[in-house]
Design brief:
elongated; Helicase, Ruva Protein, domain 3; Rossmann fold; alpha/beta; 2 domains; 38% helix; seven-stranded mixed beta sheet; two-stranded antiparallel sheet
């Protein structure tokens, strides 16, 4: 399609979106899609109705409307997601970055500067790239068990390379296997923590679209957290930090699991932006060897 004014492009997109049975306001959805594609405020389209859009923007909007009408989350429909000060590419190979996960980055920045930080299960790279751009780390390692996810993260690193203060390495492998034998200052992860039996209760936008490998964990949702607690203790420097995103329903249990047998001398639970217990922070003790 050729050039169109904002008003005309929104009308065309809204017509496509109207076939999406679960969408309550096709017009508002169209404005949200266009704002995401242009990386502007959602109110922008309403105030620029007569502005002419380039053909490639119109085409991208109509493609996004088709995908959104099919039920895709808006971030997958547009291929873009905002996280802190970054705008990242996302698709069905990675989880959609959530605003609450931004708190995990805050916790990391508050506790650590310098040294090496490892982001386990990096997905889109949102945590690793935020730490590399906002922190004062010497090195950031981003690992994932999914080669597809690492492809997305690498592309995002290239997309935002101009704001990165620290080099970011991408490594393929499960949990902390890619950094076995190293010593690091911090391990941060937003791991899978949903029990498979809880899948039916998830919103369809999550259950039907986001990658299962990044959602579900064995052991009633605790297997990844348990493995990270022990694995991080083996590679963290004394006084180093482990920071985890956890299920609000099992935050206390996650803290006890991480506390383990004394590998950490400080374990605390922290709330997200909505006041839910969603994060565990643990400081590595100096007295014990986690492999003992």
């Amino acid at each position: 399609m050729g050039e169109l004014a904002v008003a005309g492009a929104l009308a065309s997109a809204a017509t496509t979106l109207a076939r999406g049975a679960t969408l309550e306001s096709p017009r508002e959805e169209a404005r949200a899609l266009l704002a995401s594609l242009l990386d502007v405020r959602r109110s922008w389209p309403s105030h620029h109705a007569d502005e002419v859009l380039a053909p490639e923007v119109v085409d991208a909007l109509l493609r996004a409307a088709e995908k959104r009408a099919d039920g895709a989350p808006i971030q997958y429909a547009t291929g873009r997601a905002a996280f802190r000060h970054l705008t990242l590419s996302v698709d069905e190979r990675v989880l959609i970055p959530r605003p609450e996960t931004e708190v995990l980055v805050d916790l990391a920045l508050e506790r650590c500067a310098g040294g090496t930080v490892v982001d386990v299960g990096t997905g889109s790279g949102c945590i690793a790239l935020s730490l590399a751009s906002e922190g004062r780390f010497e090195r950031v390692i981003a690992s994932d068990v999914s080669a597809d996810a690492l492809s997305v993260a690498r592309a995002n690193a290239e997309r935002v390379r101009g704001v990165l203060r620290a080099p970011v390495e991408f490594r393929l492998g499960s949990l902390l296997a890619p950094v076995a034998g190293e010593r690091v200052r911090m391990v941060v992860s937003n791991p899978p923590y949903i029990a498979s039996a809880e899948a039916a209760a998830l919103p369809a936008l999550v259950r039907d679209w986001e990658p299962a490998i990044a959602l579900y964990s064995a052991g009633e949702g605790m297997a990844h957290i348990s493995a990270l607690g022990r694995g991080a203790a083996a590679i963290l420097e004394p006084g180093g930090w482990l920071l985890l995103g956890v299920d609000a329903r099992r935050a206390a249990a996650a803290a006890e699991t991480v506390r383990g047998e004394g590998w950490y001398d400080e374990v605390t639970v922290h709330r997200d932006l909505t006041g839910r217990d969603r994060f565990v922070a643990a400081r590595r003790a100096a007295e014990r060897d986690a492999d003992a």
